[in-house]
Amino acid sequence: MFSVAVHIPIINAREGELVPEKQLAALEAAIEALERQVNGSTQQSTEQKEHLADLRDVKLVFDQDGAYGAMNFSLFWSGPGDLDLSLVCPSGEIVAYMNKINCGASLDIDSGFWSSSTEHVENIYLSESAPNGQYSVNVTHYVSTNEAKDASVRFSLMVYRVGNDDIHVISKIADDIQPREAQRVFVFSLPEMLAH
């Protein structure tokens, strides 16, 4: 676990709201500053490069009108493929493309198979009022008639919290997923996870 110091006043936005333009501009400035630092250094650290990639990913979520909550789960992939992000709640209820709001969580970005973008993102945010218990975050690879039936897709899932002046990355998982496959990617429990 590590934190990416961004120093933007996100505390002014309320949970579940879009990040205001001035905060997006501050995030972009932080990305540019870190890019200069990484590019100007003779010894570029792996950690700096990871921080920069994480900031770019978070900005991509916010650029697509993603909101944030007590925790965010953001799925990223490139190229063709229809991946779906879902959250299974302690009650067994599911937050997914067919049921976007449930058990204190919301799917607010859904990059479906109709998307013309080559850089895809989906985002679920969990509110502070989410019930206690065990949750699982899942990724499913659906196959449309337009894509190769045997093509696997490389994805990454970033689990993070947006703090007062930083972005705290809890976990980042990268994996390949086969057509028609569903993967349980991340399991956590509340309230324990929010104590971090």
Description:
With 196 residues, the protein is α+β, with helices and mostly antiparallel strands. It is built from two helices and eleven strands, in the order βααββββββββββ. Helix 1 (21-40) runs antiparallel to helix 2. The longest helix is centred in the first third of the chain and has 20 residues, at 21-40. Residues 1-13 have low confidence and may be disordered.
Structural class: alpha+beta
Proportion in helices: 10-25%
What's the mean pLDDT score?
82
Provide the succession of SSEs: EHHEEEEEEEEEE
Q: Which blocks of ≥5 consecutive residues have pLDDT under 50?
A: 1-13
Radius of gyration: 17 Å
Number of separate strands: 11
Main sheet record: 7 strands, antiparallel
Strand order of the largest sheet: 1-10-9-2-7-6-5
Estimate the global geometry from the Cα principal axes.
Answer: globular
Q: How much strand?
A: 35-45%
Distance between termini?
A: 10 Å
Tally of individual helices = 2
Which tags fit this structure?
alpha+beta; globular; 196 residues; seven-stranded antiparallel β-sheet; four-stranded antiparallel β-sheet; single chain
